[in-house]
Amino acid sequence: MTLTETQRDALVELLNIGFGRAGASLSKLTGQRILLDVPVVDIHPVAQLNESLRKVGVGNVASVHQVFSGPVAGDALLILDPSAASTLKELLTDEPALPLELDASSKEVLTEVGNILLNACIGTFGNLLQVPMSFAVPNIDIASLRSVVANLVAAGDAMRYALVVTAGFRLRDAEVTGYVVIVLTVQSLTTLLMAVEEWVVREERRP
Amino acid sequence: MTARDYATVESAMLEWAQNHGDRGVFTTDTQLQVISWNLWLADATGITPADAIGQPLLELVPSLVERGLDQAYREALAGQVKVLSHSLHRYILPSASGEQMPQRGQISPLSGNGCIVGTLTIVEDVSERVATERELRARIAAAERARVNAENASRVKDEFLATLSHEIRTPLNAVLGWTQILLQSRDFDKATVQRAIEVIDRNASAQLTLISDMLDMARIATGKVRLEIVDLDVASIVESAMDAVQPAATARDVRLTTDFEPGLPTIRGDRDRLLQVVWNLLSNAVKFTDPGGQVSVHAGTTGTVLKITVVDTGHGIPAQFLPQVFERFKQADASSARRHGGLGLGLALVRELVEMHGGSVTADSPGVGHGATFTVSLPIAPRLPASPSIATASATIPSLGGIRVLVVEDEADSMEILVRSLTDVGASVKAVTSAREALDALRDDSDTPTDVVVTDIGMPGEDGFSLLQELRKLPEDRGGRVPAIAVTAYATVDDRRRALEAGFVAHIAKPFAPNALIATIARTVGTRPA
Question: Which domains occur in chain B, in start order?
Fold first, then answer.
């Protein structure tokens, strides 16, 4: 399954609304101006995630994982390489980060940031479908990308797809790049894309 | 189990949970009215369940609105779970009194029968974690500081080695250059030879000072310097130091003046070391004063302290460098283009030596271009009977006519200097290059007995100490009691003591002034100056 240009443009636009909200929330929370770059969206079978996320490195990654349910259900993750994770934490809190495995504070902050960003992204899908989405409590894991992906592959027996969204945080003249990964079953993805296309038609008909 | 029993157990369980949680838990309905409020929260916030239940949450805890957390409740009612980190929020609910408890929390929708019926808030105390992380951070910061310090120390050492190499090469360059000129010239006039010798002498002396300073610093650093404490007259020390720097001052057209308070008291100290202190301060002042300037020394007392003040009209010291002026290997200008030579050890030595005397030294300067003032403060000694003065070597060079000297030296150049200086004053010199040869020579010369043995200490095979031991085993008429003088590059106070304890009548450090050796030999064999 691939995205048409129209679908991709529409998803970028929708997710950018979510990123805008997340940036506003983070700015309000930290008292500093935080922007998120316009997202770059791609779609891959879950099993190919290792390949599409190889930019985050082969070592351990920080992944904030949140399960969501509703008419569109799946797993949402924010994935950061350890140095991006530490930098983001330091920029947000002014506290020096410790090695991630030892740093409960960093993990907590990253969980909150992931929570805000994932809620905002999935929330826009809810708005699109005009139903509230429900969310499970987010949790953070420091593990190899391979094992994160393996868990996602094992979690669903049906063929699943992953929307991979590049999230570039800009704050204090620095840029930190993370990846939002939204894993959906074929059925959820189809529902989502249909809603996206309907939204596009609605938007085009607007005066 | 009846429905009634079930309800009883369920309410008992809820009551237990209310009273035994290790974290705060409260619930609201969709109107944000408090439905439950556990005992943990009562302890943490001072708000009892009775006060809380039934109240509108945002009125019960107004700070939630002030801090924007009401938004989180609205989002929770829309289905979102919100986690609240300690680092970004510090706390969720204000503490009853005293210090604010550090907290983290979570606000989530409470669902029942597929729809949202209220909110659930969990609050945790993270004091312990925050303290542990703070300590961990402090340790990491301390380790980082230690690393930076070590790097700085290593950088200072590298800079020092570069300076050392430069400073040692510079005089060597002059020495070797003039030596080559002398070696290659077929015919040169007397003035050129004189000039060459003066340059070689001056540069070799400069190098000796460098090496002495460095060794002194190393000895002080390892605690190996011992002071030979005697009663001292400060004026004579200052005058000796003035004499030593006068040539340099004259050459730079810097005027030296002294000003002594009348009736200066005696102090207790090591004459050579205090001379080194004053000489260092004076030569430093001369080095940093431009032609036409002045260096003045004042000595006087304040209470029980004797103060020696060296004031110059020189370049002064930048304020930011003043605190480091007594640190080792530091010069205000460490660049390769710096105008002043030296290792940056002189003032460090001064401080160490003064502190060894129970005194202190300070530096002051009104700024660059305005001169500098160095003040040495030394405790005044209680008045003691004067110690017998030590006879100083006479200015006149004694003759060693008819004195038979056996010289033991393995190094050819040193040997040549020894033999030449001694034969120049009439001594009859026999030269050998090892302890073994020396013993053979002594055994064989019963008809013309040796008057004195002058020996190196560090030699391959048997050294000067074992030579002396073997010497003492010889029959009296075969050199068994001949006095021995050590002439050695083992030049520390400890080396000197060791030599004298071993039975040498004198210890002369290399490089030596030939006159000192001649005077010592003369004293040893009882010859009076000619």
Answer: 3-125 (3.30.450.20), 141-221 (1.10.287.130), 230-379 (3.30.565.10), 400-524 (3.40.50.2300)
A105·B129 Cβ contact <8 A: yes
**CB contact at 8 A, B332 and B283:** no
Q: By C-alpha distance, which of B520, B299, B521, B511 is closest to B402? A: B521
Question: What is the C-alpha separation between B338 and B341, in angstroms, rounded?
Answer: 8
Q: Which of residues 81-110 of B touch A (CB under 8 A)?
A: 81-89, 104, 106, 108-109
Please judge whether B79 and A132 are an interchain contact, meaning their C-beta atoms are less than 8 angstroms apart: yes
Highest mean pLDDT among A115-129, B194-208, B408-422: A115-129
* pLDDT tens figures, B79-111: 889 999 998 999 999 998 788 999 999 999 998
The pLDDT assigned to B389 comes to 37
* Nearest Cα residue to A114 out of A184, A163, A167: A167
**Which run of H or E residues covers position B509?**
strand B506-509
| E runs forming strands in B383-422 | 404-408
Residue B160 distance to chain A (closest CA, Å): 35
If you average pLDDT over each of A111-125, B152-166, B415-429, which comes out highest? A111-125
d(CA B210, CA B343): 7
The two structure tokens encoding residue B69: 């957390």
Instruction: State percent of chain A over pLDDT 70.
Output: 99
Residue B261, pLDDT above cutoff 90? no
Are B83 and A115 a contacting pair at CB < 8 A? yes
Query: Of A73, A96, A75, A109, whose CA–CA distance to A192 is shortest?
Result: A73
Per DSSP, the residues of B81-130 read: -EEE-HHHHS-SS--SSSSPPPEEEEEEEEEETTEEEEEEEEEEE-HHHH
B222 pLDDT more than 80: no
Question: Is the model more confident about B153 or about B167?
Answer: B153
User: At B393, is the pLDDT very low, low, confident or very high (cuts 50, 70, 90)?
Assistant: very low
CA distance B286 to B340: 11
Average pLDDT over residues B118-139: 91
Q: How confident is the model at residue B312 (pLDDT cuts 50, 70, 90)?
A: very high
Q: What is the CA radius of gyration of chain B?
A: 41
Q: Is the pLDDT of residue B337 over 70?
A: no
Give me the pLDDT at residue B108, please: 92
CB contacts of A106 in chain B (<8 Å) are 87
Is the pLDDT reported for residue B165 higher than 60?
yes
**Residue B518: φ, ψ to 5°:** -60, -45
* CB contact B387 to A (< 8 Å): no
A-B C-beta contacts closer than 8 Å = 71
Check: CB of residue B247 under 8 Å from CB of residue B283.
no
Chain A residues interacting with chain B (CB cutoff of 8 angstroms): 28-30, 66, 89, 92-93, 95-96, 98, 102-106, 108-109, 111-112, 115, 119, 123, 126, 132-138
Would you call the peptide bond into B511 cis, given omega within 30 degrees of 0 as the criterion?
yes
**Identity (one letter) of the amino acid at B69?**
L
Provide the terminal-to-terminal Cα distance of chain A, rounded to the nearest Å: 33
